[in-house]
C-alpha cells in the first residue's frame, strides 16, 4: 500500500493571496470560506470569561452538553437519542474521521455527491477508502437522489449525505431523504450524514437522517449556525452498535475537545434569538446575490435553501476557475472559492460565493463585481 496522494484545498492558497493583499493595504472582502464573520454568541463568551477566571479545567467531556445535544434531537426532530451516543469532538472534521474509521475498513467503497465538500473525498483517500463519486448536476440541484444511489453497481458500503450541502446550499426534500434511506437499508449501505448546516435554512427546516435511520452516523458542529468555528467544537451521534468503537478511537486519536469551548457551547444552545438574527442576514445576502448574478450572466445556479453558499456556472467565461477567482480577487478585492475544490472535473467551470458576511459587505462586493463581470461577459460575447 502506498501513501495516498490527496489534492490541496485551493481556496486556502487563494485566501493566503487575499491576506497578503490586505497586508499591503488593499480592501479585501472575504467570501472564500464558509466562516461566519460574526463571533460566538455574547452569553457564550461571557461564560468562557467566567470559566477562565474560576476553573483550572482539565481533560473533560461535558455530560451536561451531551444531555443538551440529546435534548436538541427531541426538540428539533422528535427523535430520541441517548446522551451515551453523543461523542464530543473538536469540530465536524474529527467527527467525520471517527464516523468513517469506525464503520468502514480500508478498501471500502463510500459514495458521495460530486460536487461536494472537499474533505469528504480527501479524507476517504487518506484512510485508503475508495470515494465513489456520484455526478449530481443542475437538474438534481447538485444533490443525491435515491435513483442515483440505487443505480450503483456493486452497491457501496457507505454513503455520505449532506443537506444543506456545501458548495450549493441545496437541501434534500423530506421524501427524497426517506427514499435514500430506504435504498440504503435495502442494500445495507451505512449512511454518514453531515448535518453541519442544520439551523441555517431559509424555508422549511432540514430533516435529520435520524428521523428515518437510527443506524446512521451523524456529524454536526458549532462552526456554522452557532458561529463558533474557531472554538473547534462539534459532535458525532454514533449508531448504537458503533459507540464503543468511536469512544476507543476518540480516546486514542483525539481526547476530548477544549473544555473552555464545551462550557461556552452549552450556553450557545440557549442563544437562539441572537443566532437566528444571523440567519436573517444570510437570507438577505442570498436574495441580493440571487438578484445580481443573472445580471452578470450567471444564470445556471440552484438557489440555495440553506447554508451560506451559491455555486454558479461560469463555463461561458472560463475553463479554469482557480485562475478566474484569483483574477477576480486581484482586480476587485473580492475573495471567492474556485469550483475545482468541490468537483475536480466540472468544477473548472464553477465558482462558489460564500455570503456569511454582513449585508453591507455583500452590497459592496456586488458593487465591485458588477462592472468586472459585465466586462467579462462582453469579452465572451464578442
Ligand atoms: C460540509 C462541511 N462539513 C464539515 C466541515 C468542517 O467543519 P468544522 O469546522 O466543524 O470542522 C465544513 C467546513 O466548512 C463543511 O463545510
Protein architecture, described:
The chain has about 375 residues and is of the alpha/beta class. Helix content is about 45%, strand content about 15%. It contains 12 helices and 12 strands. The strands form 3 sheets. It has a 7-stranded mixed β-sheet, with helices on both faces. The protein has a 3-stranded antiparallel β-sheet with strand order 9-12-11. Strands 1-10 form a two-stranded parallel ribbon. Strand 3, helix 5 (about 120-125) and strand 4 (about 130-135) form a beta-alpha-beta unit. Helix 2 (about 40-55) runs antiparallel to helix 9. About 50% of the residues are buried. The structure holds pyridoxal-5'-phosphate (PLP). Pyridoxal-5'-phosphate binds near residues 117, 194, 223, 229 and 234.
Portion in beta strands: 5-15%
Count of strand segments: 12
CATH superfamily of the largest domain: Type I PLP-dependent aspartate aminotransferase-like (Major domain)
Strand order of the largest sheet: 2-8-7-6-5-3-4
CATH fold-level assignment of the largest domain: Aspartate Aminotransferase, domain 2
Uncertain spans, ≥5 residues at pLDDT below 50? none
Large-scale geometry? globular
Mean pLDDT: 97
What's the topology here?
Elements: H1 10-23, E1 29-30, H2 42-54, H3 63-77, E2 86-89, H4 92-103, E3 109-114, H5 118-126, E4 130-135, H6 146-150, E5 158-162, H7 174-187, E6 190-194, E7 217-221, E8 234-237, H8 243-254, H9 259-268, H10 272-295, E9 309-313, H11 321-332, E10 334-335, E11 337-338, E12 350-354, H12 359-381
Parallel strand pairs: 1-10, 3-4, 3-5, 5-6, 6-7
Antiparallel strand pairs: 2-8, 7-8, 9-12, 11-12
Helix pairs in contact: 1-11, 2-9, 4-5, 4-8, 10-12
The structure holds pyridoxal-5'-phosphate.
Pyridoxal-5'-phosphate binds at residues 34, 91-93, 117, 162, 166, 194, 196, 221, 223, 229, 234.
Amino acid at each position: 500500500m502506498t501513501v495516498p496522494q490527496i489534492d490541496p484545498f485551493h481556496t486556502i492558497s487563494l485566501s493566503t493571496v487575499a491576506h497578503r493583499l490586505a497586508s499591503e493595504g488593499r480592501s479585501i472582502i472575504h467570501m472564500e470560506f464558509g466562516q461566519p464573520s460574526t463571533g460566538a454568541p455574547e452569553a457564550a463568551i461571557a461564560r468562557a470569561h467566567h470559566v477562565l477566571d474560576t476553573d483550572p479545567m482539565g481533560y473533560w467531556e461535558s455530560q451536561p452538553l451531551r444531555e443538551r445535544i440529546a435534548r436538541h434531537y427531541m426538540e428539533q426532530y422528535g427523535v430520541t437519542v441517548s446522551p451515551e451516543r453523543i461523542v464530543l469532538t473538536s469540530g465536524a472534521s474529527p467527527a467525520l474521521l471517527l464516523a468513517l474509521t469506525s464503520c468502514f475498513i480500508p478498501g471500502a467503497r463510500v459514495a458521495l455527491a460530486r460536487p461536494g465538500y472537499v474533505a469528504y473525498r480527501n479524507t476517504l483517500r487518506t484512510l485508503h477508502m475508495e470515494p465513489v463519486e456520484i455526478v449530481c448536476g443542475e437538474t438534481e440541484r447538485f444533490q443525491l437522489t435515491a435513483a442515483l444511489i440505487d443505480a450503483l453497481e456493486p452497491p457501496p458500503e457507505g454513503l455520505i449525505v449532506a443537506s444543506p450541502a456545501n458548495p450549493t446550499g441545496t437541501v434534500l426534500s423530506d421524501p427524497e431523504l426517506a427514499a435514500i434511506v430506504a435504498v440504503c437499508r435495502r442494500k445495507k449501505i451505512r449512511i454518514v450524514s453531515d448535518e453541519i448546516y442544520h439551523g441555517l435554512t431559509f424555508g422549511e427546516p432540514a430533516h435529520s437522517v435520524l428521523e428515518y435511520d437510527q443506524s446512521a452516523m451523524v456529524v454536526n458542529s458549532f462552526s456554522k449556525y452557532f458561529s463558533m468555528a474557531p472554538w473547534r467544537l462539534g459532535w458525532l451521534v454514533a449508531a448504537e452498535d458503533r459507540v464503543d468503537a468511536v469512544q476507543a478511537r476518540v480516546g486514542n486519536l483525539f481526547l476530548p475537545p477544549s473544555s473552555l469551548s464545551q462550557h461556552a457551547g452549552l450556553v450557545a444552545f440557549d442563544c437562539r434569538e441572537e443566532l437566528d438574527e444571523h440567519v436573517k442576514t444570510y437570507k438577505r445576502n442570498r436574495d441580493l446575490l440571487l438578484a445580481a448574478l443573472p445580471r452578470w450572466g450567471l444564470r445556471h445556479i440552484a438557489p440555495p435553501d440553506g447554508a451560506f453558499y451559491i455555486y454558479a456556472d461560469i463555463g461561458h467565461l472560463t475553463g479554469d476557475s482557480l485562475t478566474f477567482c484569483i483574477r477576480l480577487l486581484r482586480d476587485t478585492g473580492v475573495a471567492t472559492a474556485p469550483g475545482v475544490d468541490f468537483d475536480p472535473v466540472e468544477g473548472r467551470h464553477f465558482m462558489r460565493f460564500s455570503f456569511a458576511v454582513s449585508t453591507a459587505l455583500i452590497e459592496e462586493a456586488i458593487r465591485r463585481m458588477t462592472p468586472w463581470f459585465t466586462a467579462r461577459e462582453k469579452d465572451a460575447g464578442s
